[in-house]
């Protein structure tokens, strides 16, 4: 029996948009395991590699030939350093926490769970799996949380980004480096110690400026920002979110070029 023209057209449209060939249904086991690893199912709209109507209507999808899907891809770990508790919120020492919050909001990642002594969230930036963490151990013991996450998920250190405040940078300035020491920052000192002295992981430093006059640094970092400083920081967080996206999707060099505008990136030993 022949279908009417309108029914046939509708059938053709639906078929061309949603039909998978046998080949396209064989999604690579590595990508499937990545989804399973995060304990979630991504919706059709969140899987442009396999569910784009345009790509499905023109040809079947072969996941094994798709360069966007990397076999056995490890997640990135993005860690913001700070102190837990209301009394430390929105202070200079907690800008690492705030940057991670900005990333979570921009990428739609929930950080409502507590794991590895940290507020913790899992999601994606583009098609790359990421984990966000805000250690709740207090700054001087941040390494406990970072070490636990890195060890459990076997994350390469080159994919662990530490985000924290820096007294030696001008206020609201960013600096992305591939490695380095702790520079006197107790949170970074703890992380490096827990990683057995390994310093070969990227870090995004957020300038908070120097204390005025003879003010003690320990008191200065626990001060809140004034209204004008807060407005400048909002712009800094926007740049930081974009820098993180570039880092994860396009690599360190492109992100460093974007962030480090005053001079070329230097490799610190």
Which SSEs are present, and which pair or pack?
Layout: H1 5-18, H2 22-25, H3 29-37, H4 48-51, H5 53-58, E1 76-80, H6 95-107, E2 113-115, E3 118-125, E4 128-135, H7 142-153, E5 160-166, E6 174-177, H8 186-194, E7 203-207, H9 217-220, H10 227-250, H11 252-259
Count of helical segments? 11
- What is the mean pLDDT? 79
Please give the share of residues in helix.
25-40%
Poorly predicted residue ranges: 10-36, 40-69, 263-269
What structural category characterises the helix and strand content?
Answer: alpha/beta
- Fraction in beta strands: 5-15%
List the strand order in the largest sheet: 2-3-4-1-5-7-6
Q: How would you describe this structure to a colleague?
A:
By secondary structure, the chain is of the alpha/beta class. It is globular, with a radius of gyration of 22 Å. 40% of the residues lie in helices and 15% in strands. It is built from 11 helices and 7 strands. The protein has helices at residues 5-18, 22-25, 29-37, 48-51, 53-58, 95-107, 142-153, 186-194, 217-220, 227-250, 252-259, and strands spanning 76-80, 113-115, 118-125, 128-135, 160-166, 174-177, 203-207.
Summary?
This protein has 269 residues and is an alpha/beta fold. 40% of the residues lie in helices and 15% in strands. A seven-stranded mixed beta sheet has the order 2-3-4-1-5-7-6, sandwiched between helices.
Brief descriptors of the model:
alpha/beta, globular, 269 residues, seven-stranded mixed sheet, disordered C terminus
């Amino acid at each position: 029996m022949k279908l009417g023209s309108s029914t046939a057209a509708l059938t053709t449209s639906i078929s061309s948009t949603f039909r998978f060939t046998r080949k396209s249904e064989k999604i690579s086991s590595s990508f499937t395991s990545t989804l399973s690893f995060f304990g979630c199912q991504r919706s059709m709209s969140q899987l442009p590699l396999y569910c784009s109507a345009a790509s499905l209507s023109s040809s079947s999808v072969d996941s094994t030939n798709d360069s966007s899907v990397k076999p056995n891809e490890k997640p990135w770990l993005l860690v913001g350093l700070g102190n837990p508790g209301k009394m430390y919120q929105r202070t200079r020492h907690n800008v690492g926490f705030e940057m991670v919050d900005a990333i979570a909001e921009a990428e739609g990642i929930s950080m409502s769970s507590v794991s590895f002594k940290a507020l913790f969230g899992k999601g994606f930036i583009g098609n790359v799996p990421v984990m966000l963490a805000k250690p709740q151990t207090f700054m001087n013991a941040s390494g406990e949380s970072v070490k636990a996450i890195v060890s459990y998920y076997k994350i390469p250190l080159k994919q662990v980004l530490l985000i924290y405040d820096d007294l030696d940078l001008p206020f609201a300035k960013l600096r992305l480096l591939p490695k380095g020491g702790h520079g006197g920052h107790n949170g970074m000192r703890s992380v490096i110690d827990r990683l057995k002295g390994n310093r070969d992981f990227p870090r995004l430093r957020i300038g908070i400026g120097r204390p005025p006059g003879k003010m003690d640094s320990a008191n200065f970092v626990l001060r809140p920002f004034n209204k004008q400083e807060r407005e400048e920081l909002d712009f800094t967080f926007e740049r930081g979110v974009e820098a993180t996206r570039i880092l994860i999707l396009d690599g360190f060099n492109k992100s460093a070029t974007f962030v480090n505008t005053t001079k070329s990136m230097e490799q610190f030993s």
